[in-house]
Design a protein that fits this description.
MFS transporter; Growth Hormone, Chain: A; mainly alpha; 435 residues; single chain
Length: 435
């Protein structure tokens, strides 16, 4: 049965996740927008900037692997608290850095802290929503990544112009502590929450397939067991191939528009706002589409895979951005691809909670997201090499053309591998073991 309109506390929980994710991406986006300014002040080459990005990604990857297990052990409330305190401090401390090596260390600290966001958020969704609503809930909170990316191109240039680049890091880093107050005041798991109604609790737990011993709160999951399961590797492969594309959009897109179309990054950037606004639509729409398929009677696995292959196809046109003759043609093509990525992301995250019991969701999300970050380490190396070689030859645009071609193919390759590993996305039955 569907809950009544008054039974909506779980959507308030999604709002908390949405704002946390917005802050998460705001903090990581700042350096990309300040790249031209920092390049001049610290004499960075493309390789130097690539090393800073890779430091973030390497720490993020390690943190994801660790935080997944930590959150499954400590719970979402404490796990999220530790994560946002750590990353907010690291974001603010970037303001006192004086050397390129200092940026490497402080961005690594930011990566460690930020790695807790998605394992915690996906586990919260698994705890608060039945499967038929999870993709939509994930799409809504995941759209916070896009809001953070939309706010940054407006907020950061203004702070830069008025107060300088140091204050941009301090002010954005401080926002996380405001969110933390609301999280500590209002969040608790459904079974322990005093404001949730009995009707909503029944609806949340309406997935009878999860009413097994393996899903009881007392059961602990052997972490290493997850690596022997096909479904883990399917999620791993999907994130490995597609997450690096999103990191490219975050860290290099401002510079692409600046170098190719002479966009002034010291002013609010309408093209970037349009791109990241499109991703908000993609994230929510992507989550809604698979949920709509399920409501119309399509099996869960078929709904997820149908939606994901459609989104993979939507990325293909980015290949033709090489033929764009003005910035708005490029904005249109990149907006479609970025929106499709976030639609894909809302669904691939949900496949983890579709296939695994709640007690293992954060660990699986951590493992898969770690793979995405490893890809995010390797891809910047390739990007830096391609851009440096083409810049030396006087062909900056040609370098980006090669990169966009890689982006166009990544999602279909990921979908095919996932399909071969898990044709029906069969739910996993884990053994009851002590961790």
């Amino acid at each position: 049965m569907a809950p009544t309109k008054s039974v909506t506390y779980r959507w308030g929980v999604v709002a908390l996740l949405f704002f946390a994710t917005s802050i998460n991406y705001l903090d990581r986006q700042v350096i990309g927008l300040l790249k031209p300014t920092l390049e001049k002040q610290f004499n960075w080459s493309e390789t130097d900037y690539g090393h800073i990005v890779m430091a973030f990604q390497a720490a993020y990857a390690i943190g994801l692997l660790a935080f997944g297990g930590i959150i499954d052990k400590l719970g979402t409330k404490m796990g999220y608290t530790i994560s946002i305190v750590f990353w907010s401090i690291a974001a603010a401390l970037t303001a006192v850095v004086k050397t390129t090596l200092g940026f490497v260390f402080v961005r690594a600290a930011l990566g460690l802290g930020e790695s807790g966001n998605f394992p915690a958020a996906i586990k919260v969704v698994a705890e608060w929503f039945p499967k038929r609503e999870r993709a939509l809930a994930t799409g809504i909170f995941n759209s916070g990544a896009n809001i953070g990316a939309v706010v940054a191109p407006v907020m950061v240039p203004w702070i830069l112009g008025v107060y300088g680049w140091q204050m941009a890091f301090i002010l954005t880093g401080a926002i996380g502590f405001i969110w933390l107050i609301f999280w500590r005041m209002f969040y608790q798991t459904p079974s322990k929450h005093k404001k949730i109604t009995a009707e909503e609790l029944v609806f949340i737990n309406s997935d009878t397939s999860e009413a097994t011993v393996a899903n009881t709160p007392e059961t602990k999951i052997a972490w290493l067991e997850l690596f022997g399961i096909r479904q883990t590797w399917a999620f791993f492969a999907g994130k490995l191939l597609t997450d690096p594309i999103w990191y490219f959009f975050l860290f290099w897109l401002p510079c692409y528009f600046a170098s190719t179309f002479n966009l002034d990054l010291k002013k609010p950037s309408l093209p970037l706002v349009i791109v990241y606004t499109a991703t908000t639509i993609g994230s929510i729409g992507g989550g809604y589409l698979s949920s709509w398929f399920i409501k119309r009677g399509m099996p869960i696995f078929k709904a997820r895979k149908t939606a994901m292959v459609l989104f993979a196809l939507c990325v293909l046109p980015i290949f033709s951005s090489r033929y764009a003759t003005n910035i708005w043609q490029a904005v249109a093509l990149i907006s479609l691809a970025a929106a499709a990525h976030q639609a894909w992301s809302a669904n691939i995250f949900t496949t983890a909670s579709d296939m695994f019991p709640k007690q293992a969701v954060s660990s699986v999300v951590g493992i898969g997201s770690m793979a995405g970050s490893v890809g995010g380490i390797l891809f910047p190396m390739l990007i830096s090499y391609i851009l440096e070689v083409n810049k030396a030859a006087g062909h900056i645009t040609a370098g980006y053309n090669i990169i966009f071609t890689i982006c166009a193919c990544a999602y279909l390759a990921a979908w095919l591998i996932m399909h071969l590993l898990t044709p029906t996305m069969k739910p996993v039955q884990l053994h009851e073991k002590d961790v």
